[in-house]
Amino acid sequence: MIIGLDIGSRSIELVGIVDREVVHTKQVPTTFDPLFQCSELLDGLRPASLVGTGYGRNLIQQLDLGCPCSTITEIKAHAFGAAHLFPEARTVLDIGGQDTKAIALAKGKVMKFEMNDRCAAGTGKFLEYTASVFQIPIEEFGHYALKGENPPEISSICTVFAETEATSLMARGERPENIALGLHKTIIKRTVSMLNRVGLTFPLVFTGGVANNPCVRELLASALKITKPTDLLIPATPDMAGALGAALIGCGQQ
Amino acid sequence: MSDSAHREMWEKLDMDLEAHDALLAVLGTFYGDIYLSQENRLKGAEYLDFVLSEVHGLRIKELEQAKAEGRKVIGSFCVFVPEEIALAADAVHVGLCAGAEAGTELAEQLVPRNTCALIKSFIGFKMAKICPFTESSDMIVGETTCDGKKKAYEAFNEIAPTYVMEVPQTKTAAAKALWKTEVLRYLAEVEQLTGVTITPERLKRGIQVANDKRRALQRLTALRAANPAPISGRDALLVNQISFYDEPIRFTTKINELCDELESRIQAKEGVTPGTTPRLLLSGCPMAVPNWKLPYIVEGSGAVIVGEESCIGTRNSRDLVDESGDTLDAMIDALVDRYMKIDCACFTPNTERLDNVTSLAKELNADGVIHYSLLFCQPYAHETLKVDKALQSEGIPMLSIETDYSMEDVEQLKTRVEAFVETLA
C-alpha cells in the first residue's frame, strides 16, 4: 500500500492506495501533538512508501517508518488529487484550516498559484473562530448562516476585526443568522479575488475542509455566476483531496 | 563573531556593547546555519567568511586607521551615491547597516509602523547603537529614492546629521540635468569634508577603482550562467553584500581569484548542485546583510539561485562609467550617464527594468524568477505586477514574495517557494 498523509493545521488525513485504488482513508484532528496523531493513524499499516504533504509535512521524517518517505507541498497534492477525481478540472480552490490556495491547472499540472500571506484571514480558522463567537459547532455553522436573508456588509477579513464588527452588529439588534451569512460572504469576496488572480477557468474543483460548508459552497456558486453544475465540482470528501494527491504521487514515484 | 580585542574600539565609538554582543551572537548562529552548513563550497569562500566575521571588527579598525591618517569615512544607503567621488577624495565609502530586525521598536518612535523593514532597520541600528559603520562615518549620505526614505532622512537627520542627494524620478533631459547638479553639489560637499580638491587625475582613478570592482562582479554574474551552477546563490549574494563594505581594491582581487576558481570548476563541470537543479533568478528589493532568509529558503527547497536583479546585485554592477573622458566635466557627464541607467523602481516610467529582468533571466538560463519585495515598499510592489506580465509574455514563470526581516512567515514562504519549484521540476 502507498500512503498519502496530509498533515494540516486543523486535521490530518490519510489515504492508502493499492493499484491506484483507494483502499483506506482516515482522518483525525491535528491537536497539539501531530506526531502522536500520525503514529496513531499509521498504527497497524505497513506502507510500501509514504508521501507527506500539508503544513506539517516534514514531520514524517520523525516517524521512522522503515519505508521510502518523501514530501510535496499541499499545492501540488491538492492539484493532483483534484485532477485525478475530475480530469477536466482547470482550476482548484483549496480552503484549509490555515491557508487558502487558488491553483491554475494545465493537463493536471500546477501552472500558477496564489496563497494567502502569513495571516489566516478568510480560511477555516476564520469560520471556526466566528462560529465559536455564535456558540455554534463549526459543522453546523454553514447551515445556520443559510437561514440568514439580508446579510449586513462585514468589511473586515481580519478574524479579530470581523468579530468586532459582528459584535457591534449584534449590539444594533441585527439578526444573528444574517450576521453569520455576512461573515461567510467576506470569505467569498477574498476567495473570488484570489481565483481571479490565477485566471479562473472552469471547471473549478473546490477542495479542503471548508468545502464541506454548505453556505460557502452556495455563496461561491452564486458569486461566480455558476449556472452549470459541472462548472463547480466538489469531491464527496473534499478534505481528503490532499492526501489522495500525495498517495497518487507516491504511485508515480514507484 | 568577532574578537573581544575590538571591544575597546566599539566602546570608543559609543556603541551599546551589550546589545551589540547580542546582535553578533545571533548573526554568528545565523551565518553558521545558512553559510557554513553548505556543501561543495568554494575555496574562495574563506575570504567571504573572514570578511563577514570581521565586518564589525578588523574592517572597522581599518576605518579607524584611515581616519587617524586624516582620511574621511562616508556612509551611504543606496547605489545612487557615487562611490567614485569619495574614492577621488581619498575617502572611504561604505554601506551602512540594515537587513535585520534590530531596534525596530526604537525606530517606530521616529517613523510610522507601516514603513519598510529596510528603513526601520537603518534607523533602528543607529538608535540601538549597534552599527559601527554609522558610528565611524564622518558623513552620512541619504537619497530620495522613495517617499519612505526621503521622509525617514528628515527624522534620521535629528540623530545622525545626514546629507541628502535628490535623485530624479524620470529619465528626461531635465531630470538628467538635475542629477548633474546634484552630483556637482555632492562633489563640492565631499571636497569640503575631506579638504581634497578633486582633480581630473583623482576622479579618473576613482572611476577606475569602482569600475574594476564592477567588472569583477560582472565576471561573477556571467560565470553563473553555467550549468551546473558553480556557486550557490547564498555565496554570490554575500559577494554582492561584501562589495559594499570591503576595501574595493582588495575586494576586486579576491573576487577575481574566486572567479578563477569558478572557471576551473566550470571546466571540470563541477557544481554546487546537480545540473538538473531548477535555476532561479531573484529580482526586486535589495537584501542587506544579514537578510538571507529568502535565499536560504529557496536553496533549501531544491533550487539554486543564479542571479540577483537588485541593488545588492546586478543593479550595482551592470553599468560601467565611460573611462575615455579626460576633463573633469567629461568625467562628471560620464558619471551622470552611468547613474541615470540605474533601473530603480523609483523611476517613472521604468520600462528598461522589464527588459533587463527578462534578458538577465535568459542570459543566466534561469527556469524562473522570484520577485521579492519588502512589505510596505510601494515602488517594487507596483513593479511586481509589471515584471510578472513581462516575464509571462516571454514564457518565464514568476513567483511573487512580499515579506520583511522577521521569521514569522518562514513556513508559509517555504510552502510557496517549494510549490513554485515543484512546478519547474
Automatic annotation (TrEMBL), chain A:
Domain of life, per UniProt, equals Bacteria
Q: Which co-factors does it depend on?
A: [4Fe-4S] cluster
What keyword terms does UniProt attach to this protein?
Iron, Iron-sulfur, Metal-binding
The reply on keyword Cell membrane is no
Supply the InterPro entries for this chain.
ATPase_BadF (IPR002731), ATPase_NBD (IPR043129), CoA_E_activase_dom (IPR008275), Dehydratase_Activator_Redct (IPR051805)
Protein's UniProt keywords contain Metal-binding: yes
A Pfam family: BcrAD_BadFG
Annotated ranges, domain ATPase BadF/BadG/BcrA/BcrD type: 46-250
> Any idea what this protein is called?
Activase
Q: What is the taxonomic lineage of the source species?
A: Bacteria, Pseudomonadati, Thermodesulfobacteriota, Desulfovibrionia, Desulfovibrionales
From TrEMBL, chain B:
Pfam families (UniProt xref): HGD-D
Would you indicate the residue range of the signal peptide? Answer: none
Coiled-coil regions in this chain? none
Name the NCBIfam families for this protein: double_cubane (NF040772)
For this chain, the family text in UniProt reads: Belongs to the FldB/FldC dehydratase alpha/beta subunit family.
Protein name, UniProt field: 3-hydroxyacyl-ACP dehydratase
Recorded source organism is: Pseudodesulfovibrio sediminis
Organism classification: Bacteria, Pseudomonadati, Thermodesulfobacteriota, Desulfovibrionia, Desulfovibrionales
